Amino acid sequence: MFDTFKVSFRLKNTYRTNAIIYSLKQVPLLSRLLPETLYRKSGLKVFSSILSVLWEIMMTFLGKFFYFVFLFVSLLFLQTPNSASFLYVFVFLTLSGALMNTYMFNPSKDKYYAIMLMRTEAKKFTLANYYYQLFCLVLGMALFSLLAYFFIAEMTLWISLMLPFFVLFVKASWTAVELKKFQKTEIVANENQLGWIRWSFSIAVMVWTYLSLWLGFSLNDKSFLGIFLLFAVIGSYSLWKIHHFKNYTKMQKALLTTETVYMTSKENINKTNQENMAKKIEYNEKTTSDKEGFAYFHDLFVKRHRKLLLRAVERQAIVVFILLIVAIVLTQLQASFNSMMNELLLQYFPYMVFISYMMNRGMTLTQAMYMNCDHSMLTYQIYRTPAVILGVFKERLKTLVLLNLIPATVLAIGFPVLLWLTGGTTNGMNYIILFVSVLALSIFFSVHYLVMYYLLQPYNKNVEMKSASYGIVQGLTYFVSYFLIGRTFSTLSFGLATVLFSMIYIFLSLLIVYRLAPKTFKIRT
Question: Mean of the per-residue pLDDT values for the chain?
């Protein structure tokens, strides 16, 4: 089995190495320096292989680290960063997570190549990879356990050492259930197509977990020990059943079809996205506009894509409004909620950056602009002239800002109201800053995504994302937004800084677009 694992790892490593080399060639400054014969260079392949191994190691620990940060920050938010609350959330989220990812039923390309094309023995390959994933799980969770022991109040060492093995036993238990189901029905689970039932159940579990925690539920050490022992017995038996399962060949043939494996490939994802977007276009010969020039061209696009552009932001606005109403009701029912919400609005306002990042529809809308307009129009020379690019850019900026302001305005009005209902503030400027900074963040992200699109246009003629630079900037945007969660700054100072930064960034970005967009806005090869 170890020899099978070595073949599997080398196959995956080769796949990643070629992907790394390809990504290097997409970096603007490097693309001109690196020749097409790059894939034959042994030295660079060794370097890329090292990066691939480092990536494997990093992913073993990084995901668990962010999982811990998420749990810790959520407990801080609910003012319950203690062992009993931590164990309660950990148990429920682990049970929910096991339904989403078992490490067994992922129809990846390396499995398809090895089992279906190279005829590797299905059982050996499946178990070798599964045991390796479980090993990485326990190893990564060991870091998680140490963080829990040092940062969670009242956490004992022996309980923290159980956490990795609890996750292992839970995942093994659900894997055995899925294998048993396949044995009876010949229906195999596909972790890339979970379906709305599992997603709904997972979301419901998360909502219930934090709601019940807020209501006072928790889990002491003895209760956790009882649950752990129960799953230790079930999980150990499940591992035995997994090891002795006899139908791996049949199961993998059912899982690793061309449709399931390549359904997650870029080609099929892009094709599906294009088909879905095409369904939302409203074709009507009577659609017209009284505007002229670039405004006329863009106005027709907006009217024909009204369903695509408006539906999501309208839903966001409704959800935000409902959440604000719930929060307002809680201010009247729970006195403890008032102090928590007041402190959140006055001291923890940096989290609003992440909320604005998640709410902003800039990336989806720019993708729609490319798929349904620029994908075709950029093939014409006149569409790539500075006057046309900048004229359309201005019209799109207006639309993108106005669309994202719909849910943002609801939030901007709701925050000052919540602040007033939860005790208010001695400085009246906080009300104004809350309102203005939420709108400023919405405008900032709208500009940011459109500027990224025009300066780093990431798509090729097949609507595949081919820009490493775009991915890096997008990743940095997410990282900075995520990093600000839980940071404490006064709303007045952070809000003023946010408004000032947004104004400077918007001015400089528009200036850069004016200078560079005519050169950078083109279809990638």
Answer: 79
